[in-house]
Amino acid sequence: MTEATMSEGTGTIEALSLVPKAEAKQSMKDFKSDQEVRWCPGCGDYAVLAAVQGFMPELGLAKENIVFVSGIGCSSRFPYYMDTYGMHSIHGRAPAIATGLASSRRDLSVWVVTGDGDALSIGGNHLIHALRRNVNLKILLFNNRIYGLTKGQYSPTSEVGKITKSTPMGSLDAPFNPVSLAIGAEASFVARTVDSDRQHLTSVLRQAAAHPGTALVEIYQNCNIFNDGAFEVLKDKQQAQEAVIRLEHGKPIVFGTDSAKGVIRDSLTGDLKIVTVTEDNQSQILVHDAHAASPTTAFALSRLADPDTLHHTPIGVLRSVDRPVYDTQMSDQLDAAIERDGKGDLAALLAGRDTWTVVG
User: Fold this and answer.
1) Which residues pair with 223 in a beta bridge?
2) pLDDT band at 179, cuts 50/70/90?
3) Does the pLDDT value for residue 16 go beyond 70?
């Protein structure tokens, strides 16, 4: 899996990994498969696919050493459309399958494509354990706040009161905030972006690819058939200016027209709150530190967005910290065991001590 560093603001990736480099220069066309793309016209998945295909050549990796693993859902058709290795796997189990692959084949760059239903419902446990282990995976979580493939039931990210085919009187479930969930699971890299913002999406993908360990990227993605306009406030230019908080490491957290609004920490409660920037409070405006060892502020930032209105929604990298990488540690353990005891006997291990032969 890719372990790399990236110069902030430049987008330059310096590979430090075991993954073989491509022998020849590649283009977006090299990563397009010959399969017909079968999503509903206007689906946000098209924009994400184009961004990923356009970004892949930047990695400089042989496409035979890149793998996309998906679960079940509209987004999970992704491996068909990438001219890399891939697997359309089992509902919710993509992180588990990808963990085995990344741990046993460190010469591969392993990506997981999943949706809000696939990842956060049946696949919830697999997701959080991949995050806490810090396996060398890049997880793209498409969030359209609905079950699109099965025709419009409410999902784990649907807002309370959501009227769907499965909740005709409105959903009673409190929704997950995927970014909050990931930070709570001790994920070492957590980011959020929007399908229609190609430049921002690509920038976040660069940073995720450069991160050693698990990188989770939540992508707000429109389902124009069953949940159209779910993120309109973040896409409409006029509304987005007042609603979207663009996070940049080392820069003050300000947004709105002429950066008139900012984020401060309440001196009484310790919570984060939105204020109009004035001379009196300008010194209190938080400077974003994506690399802070404590996840406290990153978690607080993730809670700013109201699940109903989406006003004050942070996008960008909320957290990016160094933690031991699971597959590297596992490889080191195996090397140490071989050095100490020599190569093992698989047949003896399978038989164990508690076996016997039945003589007829």
Assistant:
1) 227
2) very high
3) no
Q: CA 166 → CA 149, 150, 151, 163, 171, distances in Å?
A: 14, 11, 10, 8, 8
- Say which amino acid occupies 185: A
C-alpha to C-alpha distance for 232 and 239, rounded to whole angstroms = 8
Rounded CA separation 302/95 (Å)? 23
Mind listing the pLDDT tens digit for each residue in 201-219? 999 999 999 999 999 999 9
Within 10 angstroms of residue 254's Cβ, the number of other Cβ atoms is 17
- Which domains does the chain possess? 4-247+290-334 (3.40.50.970), 252-287 (no CATH)
Task: Please state, rounded to an integer, the average pLDDT across all residues of the chain.
Answer: 92
H/E element, 124:
helix 124-133
pTM for the predicted model, two decimal places: 0.91
Task: Return the pLDDT at 20.
Answer: 85
Residues 53, 66: Cα–Cα separation, whole Å:
12
306 or 301: which leads in pLDDT: 301
- Strands (DSSP E) contained in the chain are 4-7, 12-15, 66-70, 85-88, 109-115, 138-143, 189-194, 215-220, 244-246, 254-255, 261-265, 272-276, 313-320
Confidence class for position 115, pLDDT limits 50, 70, 90: very high
Q: How far is CA 201 from CA 85, 153, 286, 321, in A?
A: 23, 27, 24, 20
Residues 245, 263: Cα–Cα separation, whole Å: 9
Does residue 160 contact residue 173 with C-beta atoms inside 8 Å?
yes
Residues 157, 78, 69, 9, Cα dihedral to 10°: -80
Alpha carbon distance 228, 327 (integer Å): 40
73 and 140 Cβ atoms separated by less than 8 Å: no
